[in-house]
């Protein structure tokens, strides 16, 4: 029966289970008992855990995988053309989950929540809206969760698209006929995972800048996110669904390994873990000046100190310069046509430091925004109105997702 279920999933995407009267009554009774259990106090539920079978009750936020709590269910928000706010979550290798506000231009009322079957085995949702109101959500697919024959370090990028304000969705495979949009499946070094450091839409052109690095187990093993390697840049046109290199080469609707190695590589980095760190880091910032893209990224040395780099497209090649050390660049903001403000932090220390980057080459310190505790994430608010310019999330005192004691800051100009 298990094989019949799998065949039905693959053929139709869904199946229905019928039950006779006695079976239906057993199911209803099970739901009643389940409701009674979850209504019990937390301390009684937490006692129902077996260290021998790894079965029992685990509170939300306390899930552990490979010895670590899973903190990947990042929520992202997007407002549809009809005014409804969508909350989009990639529940780490499961179907994309979307909650929709009941009324336009309001957060009040009971939201509807649904799974998007088209966005399966998804992590790291990256949404944006085009000028005609089309909604895109890029995500990384953990293909192993769909097909167990695929190694765990094969994780390409895909996207889902809605043209009716988030009511229905299709994925990139349905739209292009391609199994993925950015990625690879057979590199000799097994670096077949994509980590997009930033996806940033240009508000004037509608084109989408993407900077990313590779991850995987290395040539001797299939292990998720063991090494990082290299930096890449690609431009996406949501009207044609085509990808383009910095040099303007049209790569069509899919970027494969030959494409990225031939046309998209910004920098080659060694396959190693300096200071036991994954290098390059997950975080990058990307945009363009006068149509020429640039990327901020950083690596580590053997002492686990960050080395901050700026790579800029000169018109014929990528030129990389080290501009600082010891920083984690978190976000960028355009100041004028040639200058960008860079928001950065230092590990384990409070405050947000800002720097000015001109012509994607000249770097100079600007100011400091004081915070009581260390900051982990910084987001520039789209269409901000001072003094609410950036939203910063404070780092928690522990990695476990159940510990959420970091501060939330809003900062801007008076």
UniProtKB/TrEMBL annotation:
Output the superkingdom of the source species. Bacteria
**InterPro entries (UniProt xref):** IPNS-like_sf (IPR027443), Sialidase_sf (IPR036278)
Give one Pfam family, short name only: BNR_4
- From the Swiss-Prot or TrEMBL record, give the protein name: BNR-4 repeat-containing protein
